[in-house]
Amino acid sequence: MSGRTLDDDAPAAFTAVDLKKVPEVDEKKDWANAEYESQNGHAITEDGVHPTEEELRGPNKLRRVSDNIPWPAYLIALIELAERFSYYGTTAVFTNFIQRPLPPGSRTGAGGHDHVSGALGLGTNASTGLTTFNSFWVYVIPLFGAYIADTRLGRFKTVCWSVLIALIGHVIMIISSVPTVIIHPKSALACFVIALIIMGVGTGGFKANVSPLVAEQYKVEHPRIKELPSGERVIVDPAQTTARIYLYFYLMINVGSLLGQIGMTYSEKYVGFWLAYTLPTIMFLLCPIVLALGKSRYSTSPPKGSVVADTIRVFRIAAKGRWSLNFAKFSRSIDWDRARPSNIVRENQGERPAWCHWDDQFVDETRRALKACQVFLFYPLYWISYNQLNNNLISQAATMQTNGVPNDIIQNLDPLALIIFIPICDHVVYPALRRAGYNFSPLKRIFAGFLMAALSMVWAAVVQYYIYQRSPCGYYANGADCAPAPLNVWIQSGSYILIGFSEIFASISGLEYAFQMAPKRMRSMVMAIFLFMSAISSAIGEAFNPLAADPHLIWNYASAAIISGVAGIVFWICFRKLDAEQDEMNEIGKGKREDDEIMGVHGLSTYLHERQRLLATTTILNKKDLVDKGVEKAIVVDAWSFIYRVFWESEDPWVYGGEYESLAQNITRVVQGWRRIGLEPHFVFDGAEPLLKFSQHTARIQDTRIAPSNLFFRTSTIRRNEPAWLRDNRIIPPLAYGTCVDALLKLDVNCTWADAEADPRCVEIAASLGTWVLAKDTDFVILNAEDYLGYVPLDQLVWEYEHDAPPSAATEVADEGWTPATRGKSKGRKRSATVSKGFVSHGLIPPTSGEIVAIKFLVFHPKTLATHLNIPSTFLPLFSSLVGNDFVPQSYRSRFFDRRKSLSQQIERVGEVLHEVLSTGQDRRSRIGKRIAKNMAARGDATSPDANRPSVATLIQTAIQELLIRQGTAEQIDEMVETVIDAILQYGAECDPAGPFHPCMPRSPHPYQELVRRQYTHAYASGQFSPEVLEIAANGCMWANLFLENPDAESSVRTIATELVTWTAAVINDVFPIGSNSDDDASVMSKDADTTTQSSVRGEDEEDDDELISVIEEQTDSEEERTRARNRQMRETKEDNVDSRSDSNDPYYASYSSGVPVALLTSALKKLRRQQHEHSPSQAHSPATASVVTSGVVSPRTEESVASFPFPQPQPTAITTHCRSSLRIVPQRLAIPTLSALLDASSRGRTLHSSAPYTPQWKWQGPIQLQPAETRFKVFLHAMQGNTQRIRAMVEPKEDAGGNDWLVIVLAVRWAVIKAAERARTVSESKNGRNTEEMKWKKRDAQAFILSCLRVHSEMAKPQDTTAGTSDQQSEPNLPEAQPRNIQLTSQILVAIEATQHLAQALLLSEKFAVNGVERKFSGRRFHQALTSAGQLKSKDVVDQELFMALWKAVEEDSKAEWWGSDAAPVGDKAAKRPSKTTPYSSVKNSFAKSNTSLFTALANLGNDW
């Protein structure tokens, strides 16, 4: 694993829990059962035990059941009941209110027993038109309600505001029906229409958000295993639970609808419309009351920004050039991979366009949302049938004998049927279907709903036919003077009951499907689109108005029946294949398995998770078998995986900049926990970023650093400060690396720093120690070596601890004390082999209480994976490159795999192809054999010594041709082969024994350069040299280590760090020419080298000409070409370590599986590279240009002999900086002058300090790194603009009182202040005098920073109990608000600290003063508290006031007034306003020599003004 970024949405930390409180793991509540579940291939997380692929979809799949519904969901359902009561109660009387005139003698519209109620008397067409408009209006507004919820207010607030708006509409509706208004039809109509519009706004905003809000109350996202009291193991399915929630939600809708419609129809018939409109308004008042009472208990999601524009753009890019009138063809041809940012960046020549704001997951979410919207396109045709209930069927009832029953009461049979049959479906029908093994999925239910709606309209058409036959008026039965037909109105029941069943199947399933298929940030919008289909249906219904009158009503119902039936059949034909994809699509964006696309092989994490039973073994390490017996077991840890995991599991607030001491204590807890068991960790850190990963690394920074920052500043202040929001959008603090290194070194932990990618080095060390690699990167199940025990996911650790009960005897102990837990054939569950009474804690961080007695984890071995895929383990790197990893372009996946294939299916496909190529390729008569023979002839394999055996390149080419969906040109395939070879070689990269700086040296190195290389190598190997600084030397580039910052402002890295990066690069360029290693300087091996010179680096095997010859061309124009050239320089892998195991008895097949798995493949590829070079005269170096490369072993030389070699003058150069520009990472060239030119220029333009002029001498011979420490220190202070008396005095005494521990802190805050002021001045000048005071640091800001560091320092001085919790939030529960200006100050100071450390490391000053680990003094939370609370700024709150005064005077000394913002006077210190006295530097130095006082006492006494 390499890189500094990771997905910010990692799983929440697991806490120590009593097994008796974890029913998800086992109802019997003991550790043995939990052990059984893990041993049988299940992943155990906070949601419980996840089912395997076989349990989900295998032949013996487990039955699925729903979970319990949380009670907040019932509260929201109660709100929905009240709202639907008011809505349906009001709209139930609309038809009569509009269509019928006032009954004779009535002033309220009541018709009594003998007449039909009415008011406006506008007729059937007007009634149908207005009611249809109302349906259209209330289902168009949800689009706007969803937009407001997703971008501005959030769902809960939008619901509250919608309730208020709807309440106003209800009041106006009452006004339209009061007797004094209703007798004036035009006035009543005006009030009615206004009320209709206002109520529609409130109802639409309510509907779009209440449906997803109710389902969000259930928080479990993944299926889990549960054992019922009967002993049956079932799957608790969140999808089934969501379906159950919506069943009862819809039940509440129909209870409200039934009560409202029945009550209001009788009210309007016997009292009047004013009562029919008043009672729903009174019921509606229940909504705000319940919303207010349950406000603190609802689970809500924050607004996540507008996704409409990005969704449209993603769809347009994916569909570009694929538009077709054939919808099915168009839908299948959409290429979603084209819209992925990784592909867009590649097509845009490595730059990310400013309009590309999304990540790869957003593309998947858009695809998923549009899949749902495709399903919804059929719903307008369904709603045509349903809408007949609201108008035409009511009118139909009026033409039959009602026997005193209101004609609009019959429609209540629909909600009554729903109330009766929803519980029956939930408790009888659906469980019976699940027990029978039939998956009655949402799509199947929707299809059934369409058919039921068609049958309902058939029933209505038949009834209408008999009405026409029996009515005295014939085909004009709706006439005002026509007597009712002699038919009982209850014969309509069939239509209402059938439409009720169709609602259960189609409408409820549509709500469920809309919620399930909608990504979290699109839920309201997708739900609004679903509701908008009703609006479209209403618009279509307007076209059917001519049929909604006599004598065409039979055709009206018949047309609706035909449309619904045909639509249902076409729907099923189009979407029957979508059922198989639903489980996979439901996982998109849920945050549990998203690391599949982040680290390692794409999709392999999911593949391993799904097949744990087949691929993983469970290992238990007992304390009694290790520590108690004096046995120590080594483990290898991928350091960056470890850092990220510790951060994700910690509960420290990240938004303030990081709690580094707390992070260090958590790291200490983990290491000490391992040591208590008997494990000794060996950490391996990444080096410089491989050039092949640059595009992927850029995408990760943008997705995990810039995107969360943008979302933070685009979210409301209240919402973005909520703990849940911050937990879901975390960014790892930028100084975590240095904190981890410092903590590990203080624990005396073995650490190794790789030259580049650390993964091969991890496996190499693990093999030498005979142990595992603990990481979160599936590359470790690809890499292999003899004695390597396998890959252990860091998030799968389970700690076992106890309080009182001693551990029982272990059943079986293997070599060196570790117990392999193998799966037995018995189906019974075994008791734990570790303890009889105990507790377990899941996660990397061990429990804080109890005695740790064992640790358990899953192990994945490359050999097991290779056997499962039926390929040699040698070819796992090729398998990884074909599936897709960090070194292969994402676009290859779309060329290899059908978009409909899941990640696991893609992995299986690659395994099948490789197996066929390797196993059947020897048969030249087979199709693959013929293709191999053709490729061998094209590549010239027939001329090789082994003419019958294809080269590795030929096998790679054949595999690529087999995978390609559409064959490309010969040039395209050759390019893909080269790319795959480069990716494979990354797995075989080895560390240079001469150190990571050896490739940076020129062909003919000067002895001075060799000496500096030794010093740098020693510093790097001891953790005193950051990989970021190595990146400048090795790759000539600098990556911005971004944190939370305002995307609209200039990046803090550009503002604060640019000048210090220039100094750092100039220092390195003073000895190693930056960039020369990737141009024409290359390492060349020669057998004729003079034996008196430094020995050459060469391979161990002398049988072949394995000497490494430079094949780098002249300077190339692209990083990709330079990367491939550098890969061809990699040394030959050792081949004497042979793995005797074979993957097959087939000699041809086995010939590729013997030997060290990775070494054999990479060795063959490197040999191929040399052969290509030997046959390419244009690339060969002449003997005159070749030179011997030193191995790092330098013969002793006298100073005279060294001086006889003139040191070459450094030349100006340039590096590439990768910094943020708006919302993307933009590479830019930064000119690097020579160090001497930089010193001279800065000296001429700067006065070091005003009180005592001090002119450093910049004359020396050789590189700066070989000069005395005092000279290097002066250069450092000069570069930092900190060459003042007090700062120099901080490191003057030989036996100081700790002043050098604070030097970086003091210089960093000074530098941040200076650069912020310079930026403010630049902006002010460019903006015509714009006020930029807020961009500057105030003195109180700098004091707050020092005070916060001092408080942490005082706490660090106290004895620490690492077994206890590390967070002090319990004592200070109130966290400060993360204000934008404070965030920007934090970002600046973090960048300043890191840049200061890098410059000090380049100058090799770690011996002079403390450089690494100083960031542990910084607490972002305390800094923000000090910035926002005046009380925190008082120096008396600090334990050591002398120390505070001395540090502040060092920061403030010789500062200029323009550096500081307004209100610069120190808080509470009147003396600070007095002018400072100046003391000569010599007196400062003498004061330390003559006085026994501490360093800071002397510093504080300077000037005597405190």
How do the helices and strands line up, and which of them pair or pack?
Elements: E1 16-17, H1 31-39, E2 44-45, E3 48-49, H2 53-57, E4 64-65, H3 71-91, H4 94-99, H5 124-153, H6 155-177, H7 179-182, H8 185-215, E5 224-227, E6 233-236, H9 238-270, H10 273-284, H11 286-293, H12 308-319, H13 327-333, H14 341-347, H15 360-376, H16 379-386, H17 392-398, E7 400-401, H18 413-435, H19 442-470, E8 485-488, H20 493-517, H21 523-543, H22 553-575, H23 578-586, H24 604-610, H25 612-615, E9 616-622, H26 623-626, E10 633-638, H27 639-649, H28 660-677, E11 679-685, H29 694-713, H30 717-720, H31 723-728, H32 736-746, E12 750-753, H33 759-769, E13 772-775, E14 790-793, E15 798-802, E16 818-821, E17 839-842, E18 851-860, H34 862-869, H35 876-883, H36 891-896, H37 903-920, H38 927-939, H39 952-963, H40 970-987, H41 1007-1021, H42 1027-1035, E19 1037-1039, H43 1052-1069, H44 1119-1127, H45 1147-1150, H46 1157-1174, H47 1199-1203, E20 1213-1221, E21 1224-1232, H48 1235-1244, H49 1269-1279, H50 1285-1289, H51 1303-1326, H52 1339-1356, H53 1380-1402, H54 1420-1428, H55 1441-1452, H56 1481-1490, H57 1495-1501
Parallel strand pairs: 4-6, 7-8, 10-11, 10-13, 11-12, 13-14, 19-20
Antiparallel strand pairs: 1-17, 2-3, 5-6, 9-16, 9-18, 15-17, 15-18, 20-21
